[in-house]
Amino acid sequence: MSEVIDIRQINELIEKESAFVDLITIEMNKVIVGQQHMVESLLIGLLSKGHILLEGVPGLAKTLAINTLASTISADFSRIQFTPDLLPADVVGTQIYNQKTGGFDVRKGPIFSNFILADEINRAPAKVQSALLEAMQEKQVTIGDVTYKMEEPFLVMATMNPIEQEGTYPLPEAQVDRFMLKVVITYPNKKDEAQIIRHNLAGEFPKANSVLKPADILKAREVVRQVYMDEKIEKYIVDIVFASRSPEEYGLGKLKDLISFGGSPRASIALAKAAKAYAFIKRRGYVIPEDVRAVCNDVLRHRIGLTYEAEAENITSEEIIADILNTVEVP
User: Fold this and answer.
1) Residue 182 forms beta bridges with which residues?
2) Domain membership of residue 258 as a residue range
3) Dihedral (Cα; 38, 39, 45, 47), 10-degree rounding
4) What is the DSSP string of 140-174?
5) Do 49 and 214 contact (CB within 8 A), yes or no?
6) Which helix (H) or strand (E) holds 104?
7) Mean pLDDT by 10 residues, the chain (331 residues)
């Protein structure tokens, strides 16, 4: 009985604390037409301390969406345009010799902000991408022999163009795994595209207003942690991830030769965190299986390695995830 009361209390708390979700969504929708899934995914990353990788062809408002989200929150924002000649020091900063003092002064790089937009991240070589790793995982940066903590909220949102291969570098698995979500963005429908044309031909392009402070996000994250997750949901998450590692144990023997590696424990953690954030966005104090299924593609698509056989047969990680979700027993 006490558990029922607790969930009721959590529901009331979330109903009260999640009101800002509507505020952010309204402001985002002023600028971004359609692309509801992208807006939701950005909110999930923001609420669950997860970095986001947006993949889509040019012109789908990836950069604009991240810019707009940052402008709805009164926080520091940095944009880093990744290019083949970018150096790690251009991202994290470096030590500069000071002639007056005879010592070295630290010049911090653009990574020292609340929101980082890593634009076209696959245009820079691996040594630059790896400069982001410590900041993304440990929330700290080391320059010389001094380590600096990042200010919260700290969120890296990267964009990637999937169709251009010239002058691009494939992201290392370790780098891709640091992103909690990989969101694939598709073209808008005809109605939305007509609205986009009207927006851009109007005298003044709409702008989002600042409706939150960083402290509000930190408070909301604490509330998201309180969202109730039953043991059955935990088992469901573990089964999904294990089915990506050992598909034959779940009656999915046909996938064994298609998967080179499955999701790591980081995938299980990300799936649980994202499901809680999704429940919060939907104004619920508890996680249901549909929450897990809703975020599963974005959490797992970049964490399942495909074999040559899968690539030869044009089988995607999304198809493998669909098979897993259709087979693993739902609680």
Assistant:
1) 53
2) 228-326
3) -160
4) EEEETTEEEEPPSS-EEEEEE-SS--TT--PPPHH
5) no
6) strand 103-108
7) 61 79 85 83 89 84 81 86 88 84 84 88 82 82 85 86 68 81 87 84 79 87 89 94 90 86 90 94 90 94 89 88 90 82
Q: Name the residue with tokens 């399942």.
A: 304
Shared domain check, 61 and 189: yes
Handedness of CA 113, 81, 62, 198 (dihedral sign): positive
DSSP at 239: H
Cis peptide before 188 (omega within 30 of 0): no
Q: Tell me the backbone φ, ψ of residue 158, rounded to 5 degrees.
A: -110, 150
Number of domains, the chain: 2
Determine the 3-state secondary structure of 103 from DSSP: strand
d(CA 47, CA 151): 15
Gap between the Cα atoms of 50 and 181, Å rounded: 7
What distances in angstroms separate CA 55 from CA 61, 67, 78, 117, 196, one per listed residue? 11, 16, 19, 13, 20
CATH number at residue 148: 3.40.50.300
Question: Same domain, yes or no, for 185 and 237?
Answer: no
User: Which residue type occupies 108?
Assistant: K
| 86-108 exposure pattern, b = at least 16 Cβ within 10 A, e = fewer | bebebbbbbeeeeeeeeeeeeee
Q: Is residue 21 domain-resident? A: no
Which of 290, 306, 246, 300 is closest to 268 using CA atoms?
300
Structure tokens belonging to residue 147: 């380590």
Angle in degrees, 0-180, between the axes of helices 214-225 and 265-281, rounded to the nearest 10: 110
CB atoms within 10 A of CB 204: 6
263 domain-assigned = yes
Structure tokens at 173: 């698995």
pTM: 0.86
Question: Final residue of a domain: which of 219, 246, 279?
Answer: 219
Shared-domain flag, residues 215 and 247? no
Residues 151, 292, single domain; the answer is no
